[in-house]
Amino acid sequence: LRRRSNPSYKNLIQRSDQVVRATGINVVIIDADTSSELVAAFESTKKNRLDGLIVQADDMFIREAARIVQLAATYRLPAMYRLGEHVALGGLMAYGPSVPDMYRRAGYLIDKILKGANPAELPVEQPTKFELAVNMKTAKTLGIKIPNSILVRADKVIEK
């Protein structure tokens, strides 16, 4: 699921092309540029008989998290998200950077700047802490058995 208006998707799709070719998985890009297009996007997943959905951490998808999780449940579509918050709302799984850790790092950099560091001289940082979250209730509802090898690696397992 992507928003054409988000410029980061071009790079993301180019990078994922190598993985797609290596695995042989058929990938269908579903566009939803506005909130009003979300239902049509999920109808498209049904029409294309998709087996799963990857939802990126786009600002609209974050704002519409509860609705997207509900649509995935309505269409009985296993969905993987970038943020654990989606899993807390009932999404199946999430793997992505730890938002609290990124805020801590931002606080560290702000502290340096307030103490006189030149922002232009501070190194650009990439996230270093990633989290895997799994919602077992959603997995059970969808009839999906999550392997123990995934569960032991998960940072959060929601069972309610």
Give the topology, please.
Elements: H1 8-23, H2 38-47, E1 53-55, H3 59-63, H4 65-74, E2 79-81, H5 84-88, E3 93-97, H6 99-114, E4 130-135, H7 136-142, H8 148-151, E5 156-158
Parallel strand pairs: 1-2, 2-3, 4-5
Antiparallel strand pairs: 3-4
Account of the 3D structure:
With 160 residues, the chain is α/β, with parallel strands linked by helices. The chain has 8 helices and 5 strands. It has helices at residues 8-23, 38-47, 59-63, 65-74, 84-88, 99-114, 136-142, 148-151; strands spanning 53-55, 79-81, 93-97, 130-135, 156-158. The protein has a 5-stranded mixed β-sheet with strand order 1-2-3-4-5. The protein is globular.
Binned, the helix content reads 40-55%
Query: Quick one: overall form?
Result: globular
Largest sheet: 5 strands, mixed
Number of DSSP helical runs: 8
Secondary-structure element order, N to C: HHEHHEHEHEHHE
Distance between the termini: 27 Å
As laid out across the biggest beta sheet, the strand order is 1-2-3-4-5
Low-confidence stretches: none
* β-strand amount: 5-15%
Tell me the radius of gyration.
18 Å
The secondary-structure class comes to: alpha/beta
Query: How many strand segments?
Result: 5
Nearest-integer average pLDDT: 91
